[in-house]
Amino acid sequence: MSEPDRPAVFVHLLPGLIPPGDLKGSVAVVVDVLRATTVMVQALASGCAAVIPCGQIEEARRIAADLPAGSALLAGERHGLPIEGFDLGNSPGEFTPEACRGKTLVMTTTNGTRAILASLDAERVLVAAFSNFGMMVQWLHAEDREIHIVCAGTEGEISFEDALLAGGIARNLRDLGGTLCNDEAEIVSGLWARVEDVIWTQSGDRDLEENPLVRYLVRGRGGRRVQELALMTDIEASARMNRPEQGLIAELRRDPLRIVVAR
C-alpha cells in the first residue's frame, strides 16, 4: 500500500499577507505566542467551555452581556494593557481553573483575535501555542488538506516569536514528510532549525535557571513590549513547550462562532 500524501504547508507572516482565496478548503493554524493563543489554550485547559473571539471591545461587551448571568468571563487587551471593566487581561497566569471552570471566555486582543477572524475562509481553524506544540504537529500530520499557518504579528508588523512557532510547526511537518510550499515556510523553518539546536542543547543544562526559549521570545518587538510592561512571567509561561495538561487541540466552530477543545 502506498504512503498517503502528506500535507502541503504554507506560512503567512501576517493576516494581511494571505493571498485572497488561499485559505478556502484548508486548515488554518493561528499563532499569537505573546499572548492571545497561549491564553486561549490555557483557558480551555483550565476548564473554559468555549472562547469567543471578538474584533472590537464593544462587541465583546455586548456578547458577554447576552450570555446567561455569571457564565461569561470577559478578557483581553489593547496595546498590551488590560481593558477597563474587563474581568481579566491577557496574561496566561490569570486563567486558572478557579477563574475558568465552566465559563465562556469572551476575548478581544490587539492582534490574536483579529488573526482568527481573518482566517474564517478556511474550512477549519485551529489555535496553536508552544504549550500544545507536539499535539498540534501530530494532529496536522494526519491532515489531507492544505495547512496554512497564520501569524498574528504585532500591530501590523511581523513578529519574531510568531515566526518561531510557525517555523517549529512547519519544520516538524516537513520532517514527517510534508512539503513546504512558499518562501515564508522555508524561511521560518530555517529559523526554527537554528533556534532548536540551542534550545535542546541547553535544556539539558541543570545549572541553567531559565528556559532557553525565553531568550528568543524577548528578542522581538512583541517580547520587548511585554517586558516593558513588567510581564516577564507571561513570556516564561508562553515559552513552556508541550505542557501535558495543555496537550489539546483548540478548534474554531461556527454558528455560533466559538473556540472549543476538538474531540
Note down, in words, how this protein is organized.
- The chain is an alpha/beta fold and 263 residues long.
- The chain has a single domain (8-261), classed as putative 2-phosphosulfolactate phosphatase (Alpha-Beta Complex).
- Helix content is 37%, strand content 19%.
- The chain is built from 10 helices and 11 strands.
- It has helices spanning 36-45, 57-66, 97-100, 112-117, 133-141, 160-175, 183-203, 212-217, 221-228, 232-238, and strands at 8-12, 27-31, 50-54, 72-78, 81-82, 104-108, 124-128, 147-151, 179-180, 250-253, 258-261.
- The strands form 2 sheets. It has a 7-stranded mixed sheet with strand order 9-1-8-2-7-10-11. Strands 3-6-4-5 form a 4-stranded mixed sheet, with helices on both faces.
- Helix 6 (160-175) crosses helix 7 (183-203).
- The longest helix has 21 residues, at 183-203.
- It is globular.
- The two termini are 29 Å apart.
- The model has no long low-confidence stretch (mean pLDDT 94).
Question: Secondary-structure blueprint of this entry?
Answer:
Blueprint: E1 8-12, E2 27-31, H1 36-45, E3 50-54, H2 57-66, E4 72-78, E5 81-82, H3 97-100, E6 104-108, H4 112-117, E7 124-128, H5 133-141, E8 147-151, H6 160-175, E9 179-180, H7 183-203, H8 212-217, H9 221-228, H10 232-238, E10 250-253, E11 258-261
Parallel strand pairs: 1-8, 1-9, 2-7, 2-8, 3-6, 4-6
Antiparallel strand pairs: 4-5, 7-10, 10-11
Helix pairs in contact: 5-6, 6-7
